[in-house]
Amino acid sequence: MKKHLTAAVLAAALVPALAACGSGSEDARDQAPTSGSSPAAKAALTVTDPWVKAAPSGMTAAFGTLVNEGSSDVTVVAATTSVNDTTELHETVENEDGSMAMRPKEGGFVIPAGGSLALEPGGDHLMLMGLTEPVEAGTTVTITLTLGDGTTTDVEATVKAFDGADEKYQNGGEH
User: Fold this and answer.
1) 137 contacts 157 by C-beta, under 8 angstroms
2) Which of 12, 29, 148, 174 has the highest local Cβ count within 10 Å?
């Protein structure tokens, strides 16, 4: 298994980690096609400041800013890494009682043409669950993003220590 994530997908649209969801740092520009687009559209998606919250076990999160410089929307529908069993695209929403909770993001992360989407602690993020090894500050993790058209792009994310974003799942569970 890889101990490092690749910084090209996190920077612009990767996920935040909770108590594993947390809060990125190398400019990662990689070509990634828009949904149903030609290979030329692949260059439209970049990720800036991708990072992963350090965690010894359990789960963590990935963050960054997904930037779409193209003329068509791009959708990130899935993500994987070599340091965990399951990765989910998460959003943070307000419950009826006013508390905040995270849940899987139905339909993926849509980055509008000419726009961006921040993946950040307390907001949209990539949740890395079932860590298979410690994710230590100062290392890197390669995140593979899958786009709506089935293409993939890799992002190398720096692992950082972060104390924050102790969100809860919408069904009451904790990260």
Assistant:
1) no
2) 12
